[in-house]
């Protein structure tokens, strides 16, 4: 009898923001979830769950969940609060926001949200409020995730490089001859759903290469592991290209068809030659050197057979094809030099260049990790350039190309008659709060973000940022390190308690269906935003609650959503875009200025970054002798957490109880540090005290603390007491400045 | 032919994530995972052997081997342990008196003692699921799709098919127990 009372509801665990989101079948008995299991998918390879998803019940039924709205009674950070009603909470917030806006303008109120992959409507609801009030949307990209899109935008003209670099995997094929996993650890972190594809490919014979300063679980599966020094990936890529070009292994046809490689570049200014420079007309079209007529011709000219190497003179202007300039750059990075910079043996670099150059097809699997260095955007460009010059970019639609992630237009342009929102990256927000540049920000709303725990330079946040804020609201599940600083604290739902639309995992869109009624007094972010909207005079924009906002996206007319409705999503995942037949071959027009892969970026010539030049990391010590802080500090991602989520789950803590700093035996011996002793990791910005783990799994000269542990879980300090908030102006100009979590110098000392 | 349910664990595909362990505890409400993942040849979890960068690391999921002739069944004084016709070695917790003799007898160190309930705990191959035509919970939750379940007596089953294609070994075992959990060892790195 009891069995019959259990019903199942298909929903989604969106915990791993971004391209993974597991379908979940929740078993419910009388408004209590009794079990979660991986839900079915059209392709059984996509039916998956991880140890975090399996801990869903531990989060939902965690005894420490915030149960009702509260207001602060002690000092900020002290953690003393008293219970208030929702009405009092929302009335207070509305009043304070109106006061602050009257004094400093609406842009002085900032919506600081976590990753959008973590949900569509819960993110969109706040964007809607930002847009309606003309306040500030604080972008989450800068928390370590802006380097990759900066590089990808320059090279491919797209926010993400995934469909170009691992298109075959995304299209469900597993047929490359070789897989190069560069700077990511899909066995434990994003892109998690690629790990099965990688292993399938390996099972079919693909050679697996893993490039990482840590010997990760993914590295343990490699046929060849390259233990690169952090922040030197561009030099490695240039060394690889040196070998490819020296042996003539580049894919000339691909370079001509899909990249700016044949376009002539003036050697004096670095600008592309334009058709108008040929002396006839005013066309801005690019120009190639036609080998048949031995003359310059506009790129579109029929019959033109462009050169991609050589040096030419056009109307008295010295010029070279862009590919020749890339060759000139790679020329000065023979394997020996690349080896000295990267720490990877020269013969390995030489052999890898040869293998990539001769393999029929190579899939490059990458993510954010290696782009979290000061010049991480260039690292991504360098990797993508290796793929491009060997013809391993999916530049032809074969079912693998993905549309843009669902756009936010319906939320950001709620009412075109009103002034729209302002936008700040997280590091730009620091300046706005501390020095009112470009304008003052005086109040922050935190939702699904553990700002203090996860953002760079904790001391700066505690001492310079929080004190300058007149008002802080946090909508949270738990009393996180950030929540302790809130003036008003609002209890939110877990994913089992509200509905949302999840445009992942690629290529699916899934419905996160509410499984149980919200526990305690918790509310969904949409409901919270609607309550505030009502008090600010915008209630009609939140009609229909979560479902209303889901329909708003589904009815937005975005081509990738054709035929997708809430009703049919209730039965299971749908494919996010209409796949033309996989036999259909269509050249992908890249969204770069040239519509081609920009292995040479004219726009970046003035900062000397037109090519993927190797520039030293800002802080990571490459020549440690005499340096005050000789060790490179990096923050790997652990399978036990998604950022700072799950850090308080007891079943996971039983397996992985505390933060550890991983240090190589060589470095440990020099400092007289042994396994399990307490050590202090420090630099000029701060310090943290925790246990040492002496392991060969991390490169000599590098120490690793996996990110996401809460500040109170350390003996003292935390990972971000060590990091810096230095803005890379080039990234700021391209898109948004990134935090360089893996470009930090430290020293480690044992505690006597 | 009589069914003989068992597992084939492909170490090449095991990423040591321990989702199987978390899944097991959830499904069986056990005091600790009845399947646990050991990092091979080292004491410390998730730690490679060798010297940087020439390293090696592989994972070994350990659980009851559902022996054809299980020593634990023979020694259990109250007769709480039994070998089912179709393969699983199961423990009847109602009958178990917590004497711990089976724990000593198990050649695979696969039986746990639950101090709270003062009873033994072991993997039952999720018989509550397989009797409904479902796979054991660890199998469907395995991130690497490394754990395969099926009838070792049926030559057409997935597990039998894998055994014909891949090298597989048994854990070191006393003569005559005949384990039903096979391991496909990880492939050696091929280099560039």
Automatic annotation (TrEMBL), chain A:
Gene Ontology MF, one = oxidoreductase activity
Required cofactors, per record? Mo-bis(molybdopterin guanine dinucleotide)
SMART domains given for it?
A: Molybdop_Fe4S4 (SM00926)
| Keyword terms of this UniProt record | Iron, Iron-sulfur, Metal-binding, Molybdenum, Oxidoreductase
In what residue span(s) does the 4Fe-4S Mo/W bis-MGD-type domain sit? 6-64
Q: Which domain of life is it from?
A: Bacteria
Q: What InterPro entries does the entry give? A: Asp_de-COase-like_dom_sf (IPR009010), MoPterin_dinucl-bd_dom (IPR006657), Mopterin_OxRdtase (IPR006656), Mopterin_OxRdtase_4Fe-4S_dom (IPR006963), Mopterin_OxRdtase_prok_CS (IPR006655), Prok_Mopterin_Oxidored (IPR050612)
- A Pfam family: Molybdop_Fe4S4
Database matches in PANTHER family: OXIDOREDUCTASE YYAE-RELATED, TRIMETHYLAMINE-N-OXIDE REDUCTASE
Its family remark reads:
Belongs to the prokaryotic molybdopterin-containing oxidoreductase family.
For this entry, the protein name equals: Molybdopterin-dependent oxidoreductase
Q: Which organism is it from?
A: Candidatus Desulfacyla euxinica
UniProtKB/TrEMBL annotation, chain B:
Question: One GO molecular-function annotation for this sequence?
Answer: 4 iron, 4 sulfur cluster binding
Look up keyword Iron-sulfur and say if it applies: yes
Keywords attached to this Swiss-Prot or TrEMBL record, sorted alphabetically, are:
4Fe-4S, Iron, Iron-sulfur, Metal-binding
The residues covered by the 4Fe-4S ferredoxin-type domain are 5-34, 55-86, 87-116
Q: Does the keyword tRNA-binding apply?
A: no
* InterPro entries linked to this entry: 4Fe4S_Fe-S-bd (IPR017896), 4Fe4S_Fe_S_CS (IPR017900), ET_IronSulfur_Cluster-Binding (IPR050954)
Q: Which Pfam families match?
A: Fer4_11
Protein name (Swiss-Prot/TrEMBL) = 4Fe-4S dicluster domain-containing protein
């Amino acid at each position: 009898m009891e069995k019959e009372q259990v019903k199942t509801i298909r929903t989604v665990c969106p915990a791993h923001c971004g391209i993974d989101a597991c379908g979940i079948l929740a078993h419910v008995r009388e408004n209590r979830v009794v079990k979660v299991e991986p839900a079915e998918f059209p392709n059984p390879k996509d039916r998956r769950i991880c140890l975090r998803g399996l801990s869903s019940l531990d989060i939902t039924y965690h005894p420490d969940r915030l149960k009702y709205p509260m207001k602060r009674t002690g000092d900020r950070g002290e953690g003393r609060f008293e219970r208030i009603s929702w009405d009092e909470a929302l009335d207070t917030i509305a009043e304070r926001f109106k006061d602050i806006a009257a004094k400093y303008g609406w842009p002085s109120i900032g919506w600081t949200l976590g990753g959008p992959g973590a949900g569509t409507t819960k993110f969109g609801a706040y964007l809607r409020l930002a847009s309606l009030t003309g306040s500030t949307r604080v972008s989450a990209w800068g928390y370590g995730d802006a380097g990759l899109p900066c590089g990808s935008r320059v090279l491919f003209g797209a926010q993400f490089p995934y469909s170009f670099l691992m298109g075959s995997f995304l299209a469900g094929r597993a047929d490359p001859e070789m897989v190069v996993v560069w700077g990511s650890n899909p066995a434990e972190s994003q892109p998690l759903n690629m790990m099965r594809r990688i292993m399938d490919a390996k099972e079919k014979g693909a050679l697996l290469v893993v490039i990482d300063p840590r010997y990760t679980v993914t590295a343990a599966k490699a046929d060849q592991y390259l233990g690169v020094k952090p922040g030197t990936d561009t030099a490695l890529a240039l060394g690889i290209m040196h070998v490819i070009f020296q042996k003539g292994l580049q894919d000339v046809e691909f370079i001509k068809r899909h990249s700016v490689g044949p376009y002539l570049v003036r050697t004096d200014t670095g600008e592309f030659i334009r058709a108008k420079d040929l002396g006839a007309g005013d066309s801005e079209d690019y120009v190639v050197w036609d080998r048949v007529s031995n003359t310059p011709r506009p790129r579109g000219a029929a019959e033109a057979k462009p050169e991609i190497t050589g040096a030419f003179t056009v109307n008295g202007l010295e010029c070279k094809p862009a590919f020749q300039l890339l060759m000139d750059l790679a020329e000065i990075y023979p394997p020996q030099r690349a080896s000295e910079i990267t720490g990877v043996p020269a013969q390995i670099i030489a052999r890898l260049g040869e293998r990539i150059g001769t393999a029929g097809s190579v899939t490059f699997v990458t993510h954010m990790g290696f782009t979290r260095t000061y010049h991480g955007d260039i690292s991504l460009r360098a990797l993508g350039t290796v793929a491009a010059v060997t013809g391993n970019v999916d530049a032809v639609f074969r079912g693998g190309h993905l549309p843009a992630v669902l756009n936010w237009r319906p939320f950001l342009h709620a009412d075109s008659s009103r002034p729209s929102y302002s936008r700040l990256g997280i590091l730009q927000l620091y300046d706005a709060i501390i020095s009112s540049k470009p304008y003052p920000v005086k109040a922050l709303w935190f939702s699904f973000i553990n700002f203090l725990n996860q953002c760079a330079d904790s001391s700066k946040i505690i001492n310079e940022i929080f004190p300058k804020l007149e008002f802080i609201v946090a909508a949270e599940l738990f009393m996180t390190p950030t929540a302790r600083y809130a003036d008003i604290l609002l209890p939110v739902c877990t994913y089992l308690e509200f509905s949302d639309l999840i445009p992942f995992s690629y290529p699916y869109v899934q419905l996160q269906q509410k499984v149980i009624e919200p526990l305690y007094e918790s509310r969904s972010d949409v409901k919270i935003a609607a309550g505030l909207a009502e008090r600010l005079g915008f209630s009609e924009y939140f009609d229909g609650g979560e479902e209303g906002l889901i329909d708003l996206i589904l009815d937005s007319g975005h081509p990738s959503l054709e035929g997708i409705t809430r009703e049919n999503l209730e039965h299971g995942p749908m494919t996010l875009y209409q796949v033309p037949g996989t036999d259909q071959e269509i050249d992908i027009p890249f969204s770069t200025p040239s519509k081609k892969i920009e292995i040479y970026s004219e726009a970046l010539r003035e900062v000397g970054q037109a090519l993927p030049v190797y520039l030293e990391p800002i802080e990571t010590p490459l020549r440690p002798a005499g340096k005050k802080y000789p060790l490179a500090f990096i923050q790997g991602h652990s399978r036990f957490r998604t950022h700072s989520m799950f850090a308080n789950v007891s079943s996971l803590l039983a397996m992985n109880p505390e933060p550890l700093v991983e240090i190589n035996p060589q470095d440990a011996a020099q400092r007289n540090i042994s396994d399990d002793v307490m050590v202090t990791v420090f630099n000029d910005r701060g310090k943290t005290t925790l246990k040492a783990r002496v392991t060969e799994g991390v490169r000599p000269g590098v120490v690793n603390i996996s990110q996401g542990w809460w500040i109170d879980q350390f003996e003292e300090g935390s990972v971000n007491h060590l990091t810096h908030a230095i803005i890379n102006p080039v990234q700021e100009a391209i898109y948004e400045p990134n935090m360089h979590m893996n470009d930090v110098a430290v020293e480690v000392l044992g505690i006597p | 032919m009589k069914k003989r349910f068992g597992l084939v664990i492909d170490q090449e595909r095991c990423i040591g994530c321990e989702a199987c362990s978390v899944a097991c505890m959830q499904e069986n409400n056990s005091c600790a995972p009845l399947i646990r993942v050991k990092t091979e040849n080292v004491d410390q979890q998730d730690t490679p052997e060798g010297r940087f960068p020439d390293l090696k690391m592989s994972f070994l999921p350990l659980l009851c081997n559902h022996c054809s002739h299980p020593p634990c069944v023979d020694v259990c004084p109250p007769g709480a342990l039994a070998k089912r016709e179709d393969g699983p070695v199961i423990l009847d917790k109602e009958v178990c008196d917590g004497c711990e003799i089976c724990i000593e007898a198990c050649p695979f160190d696969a039986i746990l003692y639950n101090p709270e309930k003062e009873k033994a705990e072991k993997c039952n191959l999720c018989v509550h699921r397989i009797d409904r035509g479902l796979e054991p919970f660890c199998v469907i939750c395995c991130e690497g799709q490394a754990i395969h379940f099926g009838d070792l007596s049926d030559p057409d089953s997935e597990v039998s098919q894998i055994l014909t294609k891949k090298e597989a070994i048994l854990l070191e075992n006393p003569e005559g127990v005949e384990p039903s959990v096979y391991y496909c060892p990880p492939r050696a790195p091929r280099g560039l």
